[in-house]
Amino acid sequence: MLHALADTVRALRRHLDDVILPQWRQAGFNAALGLPHEAISQDGVPLPDQRYRAMACARQIYVHARAPGDEAAAHAAVLFDGLLRHFHDAATGNWHFSVDADARPLDRTQDLYTYAFVIFASAVVFERTRDPRARRTMLATTQAVEARFRRSDGGYDAALDATGVALRGPEQNPVMHLTEAYQAAARVAEPAWFAQKLRDIADDVAGRHLDARTQCIAELPLGTAGNRVEPGHQFEWVALLHCAPQVYEGLSLTLAVPRGSLWARGQGVDAATAGVCAALDPAGPVSDAMQRIWAQTEYARYLALTGDYPALAHQLEQFRTRFLHETGWREVLHPNGELARADMPATTPYHLATCYEALENVVENLAK
């Protein structure tokens, strides 16, 4: 079984490196602006751009900076230039959420999710190229996050207007990606400082979002009307805590997250197809049955990291059949397997890349 699993992982990586990433260096890339298109069609044609998001650009930087080969590294450098040129306001230090089709500022919201991905992309660019601009950008954006988004109660606001006034309070998803970003930053600068921030974030998430009954991390602070649990995010937190066990040693979140993931797996994963639903009501029932590809990649990463290899083999077989095809992927499926979203957005290769890296590490360790 392990030999077959290794073959599957290698095939997934080839599909990413040989099919998907070249597509985003060619049809998916606007060479005039130096930015990735927001989405392409199932047959690889760029869809009309109404906007370009900094977060989408940053995710594309990550996948090309981490991919093998000089061509991928060079493309990551071009994208990083585009990120700095089009989204950063040097006068204020702000990062625009989006620009329009002509690369003029469109949405000037300061979005924590976006800032997190700028830090993340800058860290991996510096790790690969040692470009000093990447390190400066990473540290300056981190400083902005701590000065602007950090609240007096220890949490982080999810969004600010251009002048720094809070638009949205704490949310789980931005701080989860800030965690990912700070872990990447700690590999290249100030590891002790970032470790303390990571512990602070974990403690705040446990106090603000962790449901005592299910041990799941809710998307909004506990007690918020319309709250939900996303199984994919439970699995993603397992991977994040696994990346830095020494940082999180002794924290309550390290005990809760594995338990919450088991609950989410039982409530939100279809046993036959291994399909992960989008969201659960905190009480348990499925509230959004759509199956988004990113949640499937997080489930695969979770199964690999927890050592459930029989389940992983079944899940990857279903994933390849249901979500991948010769020229790309299917972004969202109905539970019955029908396509629910026909485009392929620029943000998704990041999910594939982070999943496959984890799978490769597991297979490599098993081979030792």
Description:
With 368 residues, the protein is mainly alpha-helical. It has a single domain (1-367), classed as Glycosyltransferase (Alpha/alpha barrel). Helix content is 56%, strand content 11%. The protein has helices at 2-25, 54-66, 70-87, 112-129, 132-149, 172-186, 191-209, 231-243, 245-248, 252-268, 293-305, 309-323, 348-367, and strands at residues 29-30, 35-36, 39-40, 51-53, 98-100, 105-107, 110-111, 159-160, 166-168, 279-280, 286-288, 291-292, 324-325, 328-329, 332-333, 339-341, 344-345. Helix 2 (54-66) runs parallel beside helix 4, helix 6 packs parallel to helix 8 (231-243) and helix 11 runs antiparallel to helix 12 (309-323). Belongs to the N-acylglucosamine 2-epimerase family. Its EC number is 5.3.1.8.
List keywords for this structure.
Glycosyltransferase, 368 residues, globular, 13 helices
- What is the residue-averaged pLDDT? 97
Assigned CATH class: Mainly Alpha
C-alpha termini separation:
16 Å
> Can you tell me the CATH architecture?
Alpha/alpha barrel
| Uncertain residue segments | none
Q: Considering DSSP H and I runs of 4 or more, what fraction of the residues is helical?
A: 55-70%
Beta-strand residue percentage? 5-15%
For the report, how would you describe the main beta sheet? 3 strands, antiparallel
Number of helices: 13
CATH fold type: Glycosyltransferase
Global structural class:
mainly alpha
Report the order of strands and helices.
Answer: HEEEEHHEEEHHEEHHHHHEEEHHEEEEEH
General shape: globular
Q: How many domains, as an integer?
A: 1
Q: Strands of the biggest beta sheet: in what spatial order?
A: 4-5-6
Which radius of gyration do the C-alpha atoms yield? 20 Å
- The total beta strand count reads 17
